Amino acid sequence: MKANAKLAGTELNIVSRQMSPNSELPPVTPPSFQSAADFVDAYTTTDKTIADMTAKFVAQAGEAKKAQDDILPHLAFMQSLLSKKGSNHHLVIEARKKGHRIPWWRDYYEKYKDSLWESLRTMERRIAAYRRDPSTPTTKGGKGTKPKHLTQLEHKLLGTATCVREVIVDLRAGRTDEAIAKLEKNTPTQDRIAEHLERGVEPTHANPDGDAEFGSDEPQPTPRAADQLRVALAAEPDRDVASKLLTDYLQADANQFGNERIQIKGVTARIEFADRGHRIMPGDFLERRDENAEPTLCKCVGVAEFMKRRRVQDWGGGKWGKEHVVFSDREHHYRVITEAQARLLVPEAFPPGAATELPEGL
């Protein structure tokens, strides 16, 4: 089988694996380009060659593998052009800044993988084998050699796992925006995750009923979970925390009504405690959590007249510090806790035999 194509103005005679020694093919490693314009020209020409030959490959199904072999050298060349780790990395970036829509290698192959019947990993293995020895076939003939197809879910799972590995590489290299874009493109929505989780898990010795308690990954609460939540809400002193517990429970319960047509976008529950006009009240013990810092024991000692801001003291250096005002945009750093929780957090703040110190005026 023979096909004709052009690369950078050169006529090519491409045959399948059994190539003559004089066959002209694109180099596996491209030359050093003098400018971004030269780079873009090489990209455009090779892209057209691959597109034309892919169309031929699809049309000639009976000779599919041979036609695919014809495309392989050009894919190897394109991979070297668009690899993030290649020598042309800076030229891709420069071309993009000038308005050229040049993708990275993975994104480029994405538009051809279904037509070529090969995943990215498989094609990259074939390219690697071709680089080692262009005269050796990279596909095997005969019956029984084709691996078992993945299910759609397995394919999606492996694709997501591959994406996560690439995101790790991007984050380590400081490419935060690219990492976030990949996650947004390749990770499933929360609704889709919930849909798959609703299938449950196979029973095990540790979980013979195949269910799960509230707070696990199982999206549909069990009757036991409702009892656990009822006890947790009764003991929770922070209304925002209690609201989140109830919201999570109701969201999990609502997910069972979702399907391909019905999407449960969100369920929200808001809890208010009787005789409490504000989440943080004078006399409350608080746990303050700042980023990258150990939790701090605090207590609310009053309410300022201006804008009703909370007046708080922090425990530090073996004593209660001077009171200070907490602005509303900082209140979310403070969680209301019980005295028992406060004693566990900082036992030395509660000397044996000493009565709990209450704020003035209480």
Q: Could you please describe the fold and organization of this structure?
A:
The chain is of the alpha+beta class. The chain is built from twelve helices and eight strands. The strands form two sheets. Strands 3, 4, 5, 6, 7 and 8 form a six-stranded antiparallel beta sheet that branches. A two-stranded antiparallel sheet has the order 1-2. It is elongated and about 90 Å long. The termini are far apart.
Features:
disordered C terminus; alpha+beta; disordered N terminus; single chain; 6-stranded antiparallel beta sheet; 362 residues
Cα-atom radius of gyration: 32 Å
Strand count, sense and barrel status of the largest sheet are: 6 strands, antiparallel
Our measurement of the CA-to-CA distance between the termini, rounded to an integer number of angstroms, reads: 94 Å
Task: Please tell me what the overall shape is.
Answer: elongated
β-strand amount: 5-15%
The helix/strand series, from N terminus to C terminus, equals: EEHHHHHHHHHHHEEEEEEH
How many beta strands in the DSSP annotation?
8
Mean pLDDT: 75
Q: Residue share in helices?
A: 40-55%
| Structural class assignment | alpha+beta
Counting DSSP H or I runs of 4 or more residues, the number of helices is 12
Low-confidence segments, given as residue ranges, are: 1-23, 141-145, 203-219, 358-362
Concise account of the structure shown:
The protein is an alpha+beta fold. It is built from twelve helices and eight strands.
